Known about the structure:
Blueprint: E1 8-13, H1 20-26, H2 31-38, E2 50-55, E3 62-68, H3 75-81, H4 86-92, E4 105-111, E5 122-123, E6 130-132, E7 139-140, H5 142-158, E8 165-167, E9 189-193, H6 213-225, E10 229-233, H7 236-249, H8 254-260, E11 274-275, E12 283-288
Parallel strand pairs: 6-8, 10-11
Antiparallel strand pairs: 1-2, 3-4, 5-7, 9-12, 10-12
Amino acid sequence: MIGAAHAYRYTHVVLPGETISAIAKRYHITGRQLRRQNRLRGPHLRAGQKLRVKTAVPCRPIFRTKYKIKRGDSLSRIAKKLKMSLSLLRRLNPRAKGRLRAGQSLWVVTEGPRPKGAGGLYHLTDGPGYRLTSSRRSWGTFLAITRLMEVLADHARAFPRAEPIVIGDLSRKGGGFLAPHKSHRRGRDVDIRFPLRIKTDRYVAATPESLDVKRTWDLIQRFIRTGDVVYIFVDYRLQRKLYEYVKEQRRLSKKQLAEYFQYPRGARSMVGIVRHEPGHATHMHVRFVREQRPAPPSS
Length: 299
């Protein structure tokens, strides 16, 4: 259920070829929730159809807008520049064939504005497969909150019977100093307790023996694959256990292992996304990149 206190409401205009599952994923809800919110009966949608969406996650809805063709533009170049699929661009503009003329307009898809937050930060609430330790200390940037929701939802689907992931501090409402942390001031940092092989409600340090390596690695690789993570701080002894597990799985090349892990080059070496930082045996610390707003299409 989506509580009214933390609900974000959107109107989504269906694009050519869009499906219920694709739209639901964009807004971090299930297809069943989308159907119920709009009283949808059949599996098919029509282009231009308007859907009401209520979600607990801040989102940037997409919408159609006009793009003015410039000299040297082609459909593939426009799609790449606006981060659209070429097939969608063609479906939106079925008459646009051959050479494009400068000054003409095409229908394109762009992202809408960010929803309003408190001091530029947004609130994370409990969700499927995870729980918060403090609602008052769970504010993050738009990017951090949305990436957290994506990763944690995917992780929960991969481990449906596992204990919920425990989310510690992000930032306080509006940002600023958050004791006892040196960071956690701008909503880009989040503490996530390590999943353990032992069942305990206490805040205990993980050991190479108690660490649930499979779940921990699943979380780490999902965060890295978003492309929006700067560092993930993990105690060096736990890094070793994770490194050996990943190496044994043979799913990463030597180059990727070197890019992902600081280990085995020493706890003081300044390399790798996964790095040692004192005090990170109880939890991993994920730091997201600063947000950059994309330039709007020409009109």
